[in-house]
Each structure stands twice: as structure tokens, then as C-alpha cells.
Design brief:
- By secondary structure, the protein is an alpha/beta fold.
- It folds into 3 domains: 102 residues, NadA-like (Rossmann fold, 3-Layer(aba) Sandwich); 100 residues, NadA-like (Rossmann fold), CATH 3.40.50; 79 residues, Rossmann fold.
- The chain has 15 helices and 12 strands.
- The strands form 3 sheets. A 4-stranded parallel sheet has the order 2-1-3-4, with helices on both faces. Strands 6-5-7-8 form a 4-stranded parallel sheet. The protein has a 4-stranded parallel sheet with strand order 10-9-11-12, sandwiched between helices.
- Helix 3 packs parallel to helix 4.
- It is globular.
- The chain binds 1,3-dihydroxyacetonephosphate and iron/sulfur cluster (SF4).
- Iron/sulfur cluster (SF4) binds next to loops.
Length: 303
């Protein structure tokens, strides 16, 4: 078996030969983050996918993120080193369950979190990420808005926009829901000076304990700009890697229980094989892609 350094060398060479760019989410394994051309949250990565001049996008993240990249860059080849890396939250809603959910509210627009399949995006009016959810909902004229599939993000948006009536689909991220208030409390007791950041996918009791509720990209910016020397990180533990890399003088305390196995499926060996074999291509049926793209592009326009 090739060692990590050899694989990294092969990936760099193949990347040049294929005219490929490597995009990686902030929760990816450290060795994947180290070799990526761009690292970011869902919104940053969609922007990179839309702007790249490379012919091939290698997406190191989960399936809905690679699909979003394909929607925004339909002329490019989008590959995933392990296309089985999914997001259980995205699987909690289907076009059928969305139709049933919206049936009692025929005039209310549907805002869907990007953590959905292209089929669900195609039946939504506009998408959002955790970075722009408040802005997206605020941009819509009707007072009543349907929000899918993350109930915690929907509830958090409702708290920010009390004048809207947000009808929320009952989905969740099991990784963030596992973050319990007692876990934050214990870390706060051990590190009384530490500030707390939490992802909006966390339950309300955890969000209420946080100094800042934001996306993973927002947490990176907060850590960079804040005077705080110690931060409790209320999201998937992989985010602590880029935080520590960028701020070696600061301490970051992770929640050990918060681990997304799908985000760890991408390895250097799979990344090298994907570039070698040009495997793991993301394709979306054209009729679905056209409608799903419209939802994503509306979101990009609002952001
Ligand atoms: P971000 O867009 O904040 O990185 O979130 C993506 C995600 O899947 C969180 O669980
Ligand atoms: Fe999906 Fe949660 Fe994993 Fe994010 S952390 S990819 S929402 S399961």
C-alpha cells in the first residue's frame, strides 16, 4: 500500500494532468484538507464551484454538496472520491414527502436547506445554507414560509425573524442533535474563560448557551477575528483542525460525540483512485437539474 506522502504526490501530479480542482468541506479528514485547493462551508464551496476555471471538480464532502457543485457548473466533470458519502438529513425528505408537507399551504414558498437531493431542490422555490438562511427567508415577500428539512435551523431562523411565520419540516442532523447541553456545560466548567460557538443545526438548549450561532465558515471567521483565546466548538469535531491550523495560539475544545462518519469516508487513497480512474462522476437528470439549478441560483443571487 502506498504511503500517505506518495499518495499526496500522485494526487498533485494527476490534478495538474486532469486540470482538476479539489474542493473540501471543513469537516474532512486533516490530510484531505491539507491537499485541497479550497476549503469551506457549503456556501463557500458552491461559490468556488461556480467560479472555477478547472475542467474537473473533485468534491470532498457529502453527496448533496457535490450535486450542488454540478448544478452550478453543469459543463464541468464533478467527481466524488466516495459517492456513498451521504447526508442522513438530506434523506429525511423526498419529493413525495415535500408535496405532502406543502399541500395545506399552496401559496407559501418553500425554502430548502442545501442539505437535500437535487430532486427536492427541484421542487423547492429557493435554497439556503446555514450562512444565508436568514437572508434568504427575509428576502421572500410572503409572511408564511415553508422551511425544509432541518427543524433546528428553521427554528433558529424563526427566532431571528419573528415577523415571519415559518412552517418547519421535521428533519434533523443526528450528529448535531447529539450535542447535549450537559456536554457544553462540562466544557464551560473546565474552561470558564472560553466562548461557545454553535451550529444552527444544534438543538435550541445548545444554541441558547452559545455566544455565536453560525455556519462552519462563520466559526472560522469568528475564531480569526475574536479576542477570545479559548473557544468551545459546538459542531462536528473535524472543524477543530482548520481552527487550530489557523490559530495555533488559541485553544479549541471539541465535542467528542459530534462525529459525522460520512464526512470521514474520503481518504487520500480514494482521492488518488478517483483522479486516476476519473471515477465517481455526479450526474443529474436534465429535467431535475434545470429546476434544481433555478433554486440554487436564486439563493446565490440573494447571497
Ligand atoms: P456548513 O455549511 O455550515 O459548513 O454546514 C454543512 C453541514 O453539513 C453541517 O452539518
Ligand atoms: Fe449531514 Fe449532519 Fe453530516 Fe452535516 S454533519 S453532512 S448535516 S449528517
Amino acid at each position: 500500500m502506498a504511503d500517505q506522502a506518495e499518495l499526496a504526490e500522485e494526487i498533485k501530479q494527476l490534478k495538474e494532468e486532469r486540470n482538476a480542482v479539489i474542493l473540501a468541506h471543513n469537516y474532512q479528514l486533516p490530510e484531505i484538507q491539507d491537499i485541497a485547493d479550497f476549503l469551506g462551508d457549503s456556501l463557500d464551496l458552491s461559490r468556488q464551484a461556480a467560479a472555477t476555471e478547472a475542467e474537473v471538480i473533485i468534491f470532498c464532502g457529502v453527496h448533496f454538496m457535490a450535486q450542488t457543485a454540478k448544478l452550478l457548473s453543469p459543463g464541468k466533470t464533478v467527481l466524488m472520491p466516495d459517492p456513498s458519502a451521504g447526508c442522513p438529513m438530506a434523506d429525511m425528505i423526498t419529493p413525495e414527502s415535500l408535496r405532502e408537507f406543502r399541500q395545506p399551504y399552496p401559496d407559501a414558498p418553500v425554502v430548502s436547506y442545501v442539505n437535500t437531493t437535487a430532486e427536492v431542490k427541484a421542487e423547492s422555490d429557493i435554497c439556503c445554507t446555514s450562512s444565508n438562511a436568514v437572508r434568504v427567508v427575509e428576502s421572500l415577500e410572503p409572511q408564511t414560509i415553508l422551511f425544509t428539512p432541518d427543524a433546528n435551523l428553521g427554528e433558529w431562523v424563526q427566532e431571528q425573524l419573528p415577523d415571519k411565520e415559518i412552517i418547519i419540516y421535521p428533519g434533523h442532523c443526528y450528529v448535531h442533535v447529539h450535542i447535549r447541553p450537559e456536554m457544553i456545560q462540562e466544557l464551560k466548567q473546565e474552561h470558564p474563560q472560553a466562548l461557545v460557538v454553535a451550529h444552527p443545526e444544534c438543538i435550541k438548549e445548545v444554541r441558547d448557551m452559545a455566544d455565536v450561532v453560525t455556519s462552519t465558515g462563520g466559526m472560522i471567521r469568528f475564531a480569526r477575528e475574536s479576542e477570545a483565546r479559548q473557544i468551545i466548538v459546538g459542531t462536528e469535531q473535524g472543524l477543530c483542525y482548520p481552527l487550530r491550523q489557523e490559530n495555533p495560539e488559541k485553544a479549541f475544545y471539541e465535542i467528542k460525540a459530534a462525529l459525522c462518519p460520512n464526512m470521514k469516508k474520503t481518504t487520500l487513497a480514494k482521492l488518488a483512485a478517483c483522479l486516476r480512474e476519473m471515477s465517481g462522476e455526479i450526474t443529474i437528470p436534465p429535467d431535475v437539474a434545470e429546476q434544481a439549478r433555478a433554486s440554487v441560483e436564486r439563493m446565490v443571487a440573494v447571497s
